[in-house]
Amino acid sequence: MSDLEKKSIDPATIKMLKKAEADGCETIFDRADSMRPCPIGAEGSCCKQCAMGPCRVPAPKKKETAVEKVRRMGLCGATAETISARNFARMVAAGTSAHSDHARGVTEVFLSAAKGEIEGFRIQDEQKLYQLAMDFGVEIGNRSIREIAIDVGHKALAEFGRQEGELLFIKRAPLKRQEIWRSLGVIPRGIDREVVELMHRTHMGVDQDYRDLLVAAARCSLADGWGGSMISTELQDVLFGTPVPTLGQINLGVLKKDEVNVVVHGHEPLLPEILVQVLQDPEIEKAAQQVGAKGVNLAGMCCSANEILMRHGIPVAGNFLQQELAIVTGAVDAMVVDVQCEMQSLAQVARCYHTKLITTSPKAKIEGAMHIEFTEHHAYDVAKKILMEAIQNFKNRKPNVEIPSELTDTVVGFSHETINYLLGGIFRASYRPLNDNIINGRIRGIAGVVGCNNARVTHDDPNLTLIKELIRNDVIVLTTGCSAMTCGKAGLLTPEAAKQYAGAGLASVCETVGIPPVLHMGACVDNSRILMAATAVVKDGGLGDDISDLPAAGAALEWMSEKAIAIGQYFVASGVFTVFGVTWPTTGSEEVTKLLFEEFENTFRGKWAFEPDPLKAAKLMIEHIDKKRKALGIDKARERVLFDMAKRRELEAA
Ligand code: BF8
Predict the structure, then answer these.
(1) Bond prior to 58 in cis (omega within 30° of 0)
(2) Is residue 561 in contact with ligand 1, taking CB distance under 6 Å?
């Protein structure tokens, strides 16, 4: 394997890495070679909570005595356990704040749209609005959509600042799960309150009991999964439409040589939604033709891409580690970014080519980028201005344009409502067929494989190897974020993939229903859809009375962001066995790691695991699924339908 092949399994990525090298343009892949991670920070042992430090309290190299252990502490006496737990908790707080601040923005836009203050936007999914009204206790009666939507918007906004009581979406969880949370005292109050409290607890000299810190971190994470992220997903669906299966294309090959290419990158969907509308403006087409382009080609990157792909079939240029490489093609006339997962190096890479890097959020500026601030009240005009900037930049392209040919067809947009309809039909929408197929063993279990890319491992490889192994073993995979794009590029998001990659049982179900073996459920905030799907499976009956009873597991083998830790933590706190790869941020404390990896199972009935090897991770997940099947008494059914490869080939040939 060449050095380049160790960096990515995606041919388009490798081509662009070669081009970047030839063009003398440095990327994250080069920096990953030249800079190693700090070993003390990587294990969560660096405390920089005060100016007496940073204190380094790394894990001991050998077994230590009790006295040696007690002596291993920071200046203030903070132990390795406290330091490790505080660092972990702060990751959860940061991740929760990112998803939730996004959610607050969505809620404000939703309210403005409900009031008719945003041109061109009206409620798209009235059915879902009614559901939300019921969840939030908003009167429906003979009231207009506008009145209901305004009340729903206000109720959602109040969830951020709620000082007492319980987040309203908590009641969506299975009753047993709610009881577990209540008994542990982890039901979140307001979203902001939980984040603020966790930041306070982790300040120097406050909460210095690692168990207590990690329970507080769990509560904060639930304010993400069942709060901020769920609010985002639900309101975006009501406003922009709940995704339904949609055909799209993915990889750098979606860029076009003869058109103005605009890549939208980030997480907030309003600007991309408006850009889609503005593309229809005749002035845009005319302006593009005037500069010699055939038109304007909009493509997505990262989670913004997932949003517009699911709702409009807008093509996706790539996932996290491809953001610089889109610019390296030399064909991106503007890259438009809002918040989260945008590398600062984009400005540097853009300087190597002609790309205009445009920041749009008042919260996220990048030195060297052009800033065109986006506000929902002037949405159309701002979107048009951005497209005009890109069009004017088309003529500045340099001769070294090279667009890789790779692009793959995908079917995306599996909201949990859609799965319901697909399985049960529109008049008797139900998860029953899914539950029945799990019970009869055709489907062995469910896995959520989500999260990022990470430049410390081969791009796309761990997630893809894991997912292929899971579906080969009849485990249906739900995916979001950058992992979903990995699956798309590898051709797993089409119904045809079932025959090629899935085990006989899963393949037979996919072929009957017409779904891929891997279901693309959206962006990272849409992990809340996975919580809702798991809850729907529990409520449909026959598979226990809690999420922790399900033959299900989660994974993020290429995680890199604090958001991923918040997501993992809310899955664990919701009863899911969750495996992370690359590195684990609490190895500096055996006790903290043991609490997360073992003892949480006694309280939350979910736990973490760390396994960077994808095949070993698959084994862990499948063993967990089988353990749950046994506990449910459905392990025998599966034994009857298990075919080995020889048997499958025999059946296929027959
Ligand atoms: O929120 S999967 S790299 S893009 S953090 Fe970021 Fe990770 Fe991608 Fe979307 Ni999620």
Answers:
(1) no
(2) yes
